Amino acid sequence: MGVEGCTKCIKYMLFFFNFIFWLAGGVVLGVALWLRHDNHTSSLLELKFDGQQAPTTFLNSVHILIAVGAVMMVVGFLGCYGAIQESQCLLGTFFACLVILFACEVAAGIFGFMHKDSISKELITFYDNVYENSLATTLTDQEKKQAAAAVLKVFHETLECCGKGSSNPLTTLITQGFTDICPKSVSTSTTDCHVKIKQLFNEKVYLIGIAALIVAIIMIFEMTFSMVLCCGIRNSPVY
């Protein structure tokens, strides 16, 4: 015999929430792997020009997210097993892991909110640098000009855009008409790559934020239930 009454109900509720937490860890891991291998982001963030690598802030964040998803699955399994076995040691370890994860999530959320626009700004700066080099490079430096054109072509074909936000529409039109780095189907009135880059990363940042909020709510319930169950086990006459 183990715990009885309300504590037994808490035990199965904790198991249920831990199972949800384990599934959430799998979802976080899956989303992180999707973000890492998504054609739109990976093709842009793996670009290089003149020895300069595209900003890696987003990829670093995704790698951290992959690790978090894996840890969540391990901790979720630990919580499920500890609840079923009614082990104070496992539940205490589970609670400590949750506190650490929750603190890291809050810190990451604050940092991400404060720097939510930095990823798109860094990539826009990289794009502008390549764009300006492609227009300013002299004809004698053909190798650098071809490298710039190749990088721009990946940007334009991936995002279906052409030109900077502040670029002259006539310049964009000439670029479209006399080069092959811009998609021919893109209209000159809707070709702002700055807007496209911001849209691409803002959508993904909001997706990560919603997932983090849901996980945080689940963690709060789990921390409460694990402590209640641990106290119930300690006060149970069977133990």
UniProtKB/TrEMBL annotation:
Swiss-Prot/TrEMBL GO biological process terms: adaptive immune response
One Pfam family it belongs to: Tetraspanin
Disulphide bonds in the chain: 161-193, 162-182
Predominant location category: membrane
Subcellular location: Basolateral cell membrane; Membrane
Annotated keywords: Adaptive immunity, Cell membrane, Disulfide bond, Immunity, Lipid-binding, Membrane, Transmembrane, Transmembrane helix
InterPro entries per UniProt: Tetraspanin/Peripherin, Tetraspanin_animals, Tetraspanin_CS, Tetraspanin_EC2_sf
Domain of life: Eukaryota
Keyword Electron transport recorded: no
A Gene Ontology cellular-component term: basolateral plasma membrane
Ribosomal protein among keywords: no
Record-level Gene Ontology MF annotations: lipid binding
Residues annotated as transmembrane: 12-35, 56-84, 90-113, 205-229
Bilayer disposition of the protein: Multi-pass membrane protein
Family that this chain belongs to: Belongs to the tetraspanin (TM4SF) family.
PANTHER family: CD81 ANTIGEN, TETRASPANIN
Stated name of the protein: Tetraspanin
Originating organism: Hucho hucho (huchen)
